[in-house]
Design a protein that fits this description.
Number of strands: 11
Bound molecules: pyridoxal-5'-phosphate
Oligomer: single chain
Structural class: alpha/beta
Order of helices and strands: HHHHHEHHEHEHEHEEEHHEEHEEH
Strand content: 5-15%
C-alpha cells in the first residue's frame, strides 16, 4: 500500500540530510514567490498521493528555514536526531490517540516510563507528577492553572464550584525578563495585568532579590512566583536558593520556567546553576529544544499529583473510565485527543542515554564559550552577557555615526542572506543585539569558526556600504 509514496519520503529524507550542510540556511525566495508557488485552488477531485506530496515538497522547499543545520543559532530551537524523526514517523503511522489508557495502552505505559526517566535525568524527586504537551507555552499555562487553583483552595476558595469571579485577589510575581509565554499563560488563565507584579532584574536578567522581598512584603492572599532557569537572551538563571525559601516563608507557590535551562541538571558541570530548584512547586521544560526531538514536545512537572489531577476533574463520558491503576495522558494536560509524544521521547532517550543528553548540553555550552572568545577578538564587537550556558548575546558598535541599532540589524541581515549561518536579533536593555543560541546536537567547533567568518564578513560588508554612501554623499 502506497509503497512508492513512503519510499519517496525516505529518499527525500536521506537527500535532505545529505544536502543540509551545503544549502543556504535561510529562505531563498521572496515571500511573493513563495506564496505564489504554494497558492492553488482547492482541487475538486483528489490528486494522486504522490502528486499531492510532490506538490507539497516543491512548493515549500524555498520557504524552509533549515534549523536542522548545525549552524542555525536562532531562537533556542535545536535540531532533531534521526532516532527522534524516525520515531515521530511511526507515531503518525500508528496513529495512536494518547488520550486515555483505553485509547492506547502502549502510549500510556510509555508516558509513565518516560516520566520517570525525565525526572531521573533532571534529578527531581520521582514522585513528582508529569504531563506531556506541545511545548513550554502550554506547560507554563498548565502549571500556572494548577498553581492558581491550589493557591485559591489554600485561601478557602473553591474554584471548581465558584470559578474565578469574586475570588480573592491574586498576585503573580514575575521577573521583568521572564519569557513572554508566562504573560500569555496568565492572560489565558483569566487573570490580567493588574494581577501581575513585575520584579526588576539585574543586568543579566536575574530577579532582583531585594525587589522580590519588597513585593512579597506588600502581598497578601494567593501568591505565585515565576522564576526562570535559562533566560532566552543571556541564558542566566534566577537564584533559586534565595527565591524558593523566601517564597515558602510567604506561603507562595514557585513555578520554574526552565524550557531549556532545566537540562543543565543533567550535567555535573552546570548543575550549580540549578541547585535548589527541586524545592519548587512546578516546572516547565521543553524536549523539542535542547533534547533535540522533533516538534512538538513539552513537559510540565507538578510537585503534588493531587493538585495536578484536579486540573481536569471532568472526564469525557465516552472516554474510558479513569482508573487509579493506569495513566490517562490527557488528565495532566489541557488537551483531550493528543499525539503519543512519549514514543519519540522513549526512542530518543534510549538512543542518547544519560551521557548523550549530558554531552549535548556540555558541548553546546562549551561552544557558546568558544563563540564568546572569538567574538571578543573581532573589532568593535562586545559580548553583552556572562556566558554561563548556551546563549551568547553580542552587539557591534560602529565607529561612524550611523544608528547602531540599524547597523546591527543590517549586519544580521547580511549573515542571514549569506546563508552559511543563521543568527537572529533581539532587543536587550533597549538596544538591538544579536543572539546566538547553541542547542543543536550536531554543532562543532568548525561550525563556530565558519560562523565567526560569516559574522566578520558581514560586518565588513556593512562598513563598506556605509563608507560608500558617505563617499557618494560627499561627492554629491
Ligand atoms: C522557548 C521558551 C518558551 C516557550 O516555549 P515553546 O516551546 O515555544 O512554547 C518559554 N520559556 C522559555 C524560557 C523558553 O526558552
Amino acid at each position: 500500500m502506497s509503497k512508492n509514496l513512503f519510499m519517496n519520503v525516505v529518499s527525500e529524507t536521506i537527500k535532505y540530510f545529505e544536502l543540509l550542510q551545503d544549502i543556504p540556511i535561510g529562505v531563498t525566495s521572496s515571500i511573493e514567490e513563495l506564496k505564489s508557488s504554494v497558492d492553488s485552488d482547492l482541487p475538486n477531485d483528489g490528486e494522486d498521493p504522490e502528486i499531492a506530496l510532490n506538490k507539497l515538497i516543491s512548493s515549500v522547499k524555498k520557504g524552509l528555514i533549515h534549523s536542522q543545520n548545525p549552524r542555525y543559532f536562532g531562537f533556542v530551537i535545536g535540531g532533531s536526531t534521526p532516532t527522534s524523526i524516525a520515531a515521530d514517523w511511526l507515531t503518525s503511522v500508528w496513529d495512536q490517540n494518547a488520550q486515555v489508557f483505553d485509547t492506547s495502552p502502549a502510549a500510556s505505559i510509555i508516558e509513565d516510563i518516560v516520566a520517570n526517566w525525565i525526572l531521573e535525568l533532571l534529578k527531581l524527586p520521582k514522585e513528582l507528577s508529569v504531563g506531556f504537551l506541545t511545548g513550554a507555552q502550554m506547560a507554563n499555562f498548565t502549571a500556572l492553572n494548577v498553581a492558581r487553583n491550589a493557591m485559591l483552595e489554600k485561601h478557602g476558595w473553591d474554584i471548581e464550584l465558584n470559578g474565578l469571579q469574586g475570588s480573592p485577589n491574586f498576585n503573580i510575581l514575575v521577573g521583568e525578563s521572564c519569557h513572554g509565554t508566562i504573560h500569555s499563560a496568565i492572560r489565558m488563565m483569566g487573570l490580567g495585568k493588574k494581577n501581575i507584579k513585575s520584579i526588576s532584574s539585574d543586568f543579566q536578567g536575574r530577579i532582583n532579590i531585594d525587589s522580590l522581598k519588597n513585593e512579597l512584603n506588600n502581598c497578601s492572599g494567593p501568591t505565585i512566583i515565576c522564576a526562570q532557569a535559562g533566560n532566552v537572551n543571556t541564558g542566566c538563571f534566577d537564584s533559586f536558593e534565595e527565591i524558593i525559601p523566601l517564597a515558602k516563608k510567604h506561603g507562595a507557590w514557585v513555578h520554574i520556567d526552565g524550557a531549556f535551562g532545566l537540562w543543565a541538571r543533567t550535567s555535573p558541570k552546570y548543575f550549580h546553576l540549578v541547585t535548589g530548584i527541586e524545592k519548587a512547586d512546578s516546572w516547565t521544560v521543553d524536549a523539542h529544544k535542547w533534547l533535540n526531538v522533533s516538534y512538538d514536545s513539552g513537559i510540565v512537572i507538578i510537585r503534588d499529583s493531587k493538585n495536578h489531577y484536579k486540573l481536569k476533574t471532568i472526564q469525557c463520558s465516552y472516554a474510558g473510565q479513569h482508573s487509579e491503576e493506569h495513566r490517562d495522558g490527557s488528565q495532566w494536560v489541557p488537551e483531550n485527543s493528543r499525539r503519543a509524544r512519549g514514543f519519540v521521547l522513549y526512542a530518543a532517550l534510549r538512543n542518547l542515554g544519560r551521557d548523550g543528553v549530558r554531552n549535548i548540553v556540555e558541548n553546546s555550552c562549551s561552544l557558546a564559550t568558544e563563540f564568546a572568545q572569538q567574538l571578543e577578538k573581532l573589532p568593535n564587537v562586545h559580548v553583552l552577557n556572562n556566558v554561563v550556558l548556551n546563549q551568547v548575546l553580542f552587539r557591534v558598535e560602529s565607529e561612524s555615526n550611523c544608528d547602531t541599532n540599524s547597523f546591527n540589524n543590517n549586519i544580521c541581515e547580511h549573515i542571514q542572506k549569506e546563508g552559511l549561518a543563521w543568527i537572529g536579533t533581539t532587543r536587550w536593555q533597549g538596544k538591538i543585539a544579536m543572539r546566538i543560541s547553541v542547542s543543536n546536537w550536531l554543532t562543532t567547533k568548525a561550525d563556530v569558526d565558519k560562523t565567526i567568518r560569516s559574522i566578520r564578513n558581514s560586518i565588513e560588508k556593512e562598513l563598506q556600504i556605509i563608507n560608500n554612501s558617505v563617499l557618494i554623499n560627499k561627492t554629491a
